[in-house]
Amino acid sequence: MDNKPKIILLGAGGHCRSCIDVIEEEGRFSIAGIVDRVEAGVATSVLGYPVIGTDDDLPELRKQYAFALVTVGQIRSSAVRRRLFDVLQELGFELPTVVSPHAYVSSHAQVGAGTIVMHHALVNAGANVGENCIINTKALVEHDVQIGADCHISTGAIINGGVVVGAGTFCGSNTVTVQEISIPAGSFIKAGHLECGE
Question: Which residues on neighbouring strands pair with residue 122, listed in sequence order?
């Protein structure tokens, strides 16, 4: 019998698939199902886990489940992830930090609620990652970096020491930042870009 706490996932797209893999590997939670919008062509299951409702069902689902995670991806805007995160908080869900066992998060770093650290990502000493973030596969968050809420640090991105990343920012795949710069909130940094600040 599976005695792990059950968790529901919000969003049934590609990012959800990656999150499922991390959650399975981490082994702390049992995935109860996925919540997604109802439209033609929307999946009825993802990697074998059923879609069990829509956003409108969340108050009832809260009566059954204590844990939830936003698994909608983020590129141009963090607005959808932020809205879902706020709804979950208002309903009293617990939003855990999920870290792949194949990632490294320093014991001297902090990672906020509802953030997922994907396979082979590194979060080094003194770093502070806000709530509801995605630290994607093979991303590097160096020492003393400050990442605001609702950011997506994409695959292979390198955020060098002392950088401050404003809330709601997207750093594309293979982005590299110069150390000690500040990136304004809501920034969009395209893939492969060298970010040198102002």
Answer: 104, 140
* Same domain as 86, residue 30: yes
What are the pLDDT digits (tens) for 166-194? 999 999 999 999 999 999 999 999 999 88
Q: Which domain holds residue 126?
A: 97-192
Q: What is the CATH number of the domain that holds 83?
A: 3.40.50.20
Percent of the chain with pLDDT over 90: 85
β-strand 6-10 against 30-35: which pairing, if any? parallel
If one counts every other C-beta atom within 10 angstroms of the C-beta of residue 9, the result is: 27
pTM of the entire predicted model = 0.94
All residues at 6 or more sequence positions from 148 whose CB lies less than 8 Å from its CB, including other chains: 130, 165, 166, 167, 168, 169, 185
The SS3 of residue 156 is: coil
